[in-house]
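User: Round two. Same drill as before: sequence, then structure, for each protein.

Assistant: Same drill it is. First protein:
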Amino acid sequence: MAVAPSRVDGLNLTPLSKDDQNYHRPTDLKAFDDTKAGVKGLVDAGITEIPRIFYRPPENYDSHNISAETQVQIPVIDLDQINKSSLKRKYTIDRVREASEKLGFFQLINHGIPENVLEEMKDAVRRFHEQETESKKQYYTRDLTKPLIYNSNFDLYSAAITNWRDSFGYISAPSPHSPQDLPEICRDVLVDYSKRVMEIGNLLFELLSEALDLNPNYLKDIDCNEGLALVCHYYPPCPQPNLAIGTSEHTDNDFITVLLQDHIGGLQIRYENNWVDVPPVAGALVVNIGDLMQLITNDKFKSVKHRVLANKEDARVSVAGVFSTLHFQTSKLYRPIKELISEEKPAIYRETTIRDFNIQFRSVGLGTSTLQHFKLRQADA
């Protein structure tokens, strides 16, 4: 009979009681990070109980069930004929506006990316994360200047909760590295898919501009589409999903996110203090409003809290197209759009660079509100 390991390369895997005084979280976080094997490495080691660093606080053990009282569905918006029919475009803009103001989330179908490309992108994420640990260790880093940034929990040392997921990221704009610097196992599809997501982003920024009653090119003209990163998440099966979380409750620190999720499910948004599933729709892309969009629209469009549940049955993969220049140094300042403020609706947020916004986000990690940090004092009155 196999015996579950008690240690993996210095990481204590023995579950500890809440009052165990020997538990030292920083030490275990460092030991976990030093393995460079991520959460997948723990699963490969055959653990049957998760390490203490992945425990959610008791107050987060709310039910995974959706409230029967919450009768809301994530809109599925069809982009077919969007540029050929003015009536279809107006109808689509109205739906985008309603979803962005109320839910902050919607799904797109007939967006132009062939389904075989979507499947290949998901397969590439699986291939990278499921290859031998020694093969992917060379890419394990927390250096944001690297061509490919693979690690587990970008906020490992700052966040209150360690998520049950591994990730790798590729920045395709504004200053991409040479494709030859990317792993061959996912190189071609990363480059191709990022170009396709940029095209969808450009269309979305037009629709969002028109939904704000602005010129269609307004959001592109202020460079909301200047930066794009692909963040590819892998959620291994979790032996104790009731104790862990795939991704902590958070909002995104970008303008918009264009997400490709697989069939496993687990993504939820918080709506009227209840959790609502964002169900997988074959061939669809999930779009959500980010904090920077809420800032420049002066709270007209909502950046909504969301999370991903851990599950025991199968690995989950997703690919987030993050529209932001993130850590790149630019002097461009973003503030609430002047057309959206008035004496009755004054500016709620102070101006910021995207880099400063991102630094604030990364300094505290998932689960905290970056927007709150940039609120003007009178907005709190």
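Second protein:
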Amino acid sequence: MKNLNRHVFLIGFMGTGKSAISAQLGEMMMLDVWDTDKLITESRGMSIPEIFEREGEDYFRDLETDTLRLLSAAEGHIISCGGGIVLREENIRMMRELGQVVLLTARPQTVYERVKADTQRPLLKGNLNATYIEELMTKRQSAYERASHISVATDDKSVLDICREILFDLEKLEDT
């Protein structure tokens, strides 16, 4: 990717591989990696489940928007975004203006297998099954599609292969 002063945002449903892929992609592109969820938890001194429980989902979504605003002052990072960041049109607009947005996808069963042991997923509390995951994914699909420049399926692929595919697709975007 030639234009390294723009961000690369990784979006997608929980469990699609954003954290692992952002780390590898950052290494390959020699860019720092930021994670919106980590930035929020560090700034608030609370875990995401605690924020949801104490302040509610709307408050957390406000924090996501505020975090994107802060990131707009920086240049050239890989940014791993929380799964629900696309739920606000303002966030979609900001990400698209600040860089390239890569949607990572996975089948509901794949997501379930990846997150079933994780107790830090407040939206899955009491609903940790592939059917519920598919319902949530379907509700968010149009927002993910509106936000993204590129879409890459992560099922049955290595992190390295996914990163290579992203880099290839980013190059194609720049050439158009």
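The first strand starts at residue 7 and ends at 11.

User: Perfect.
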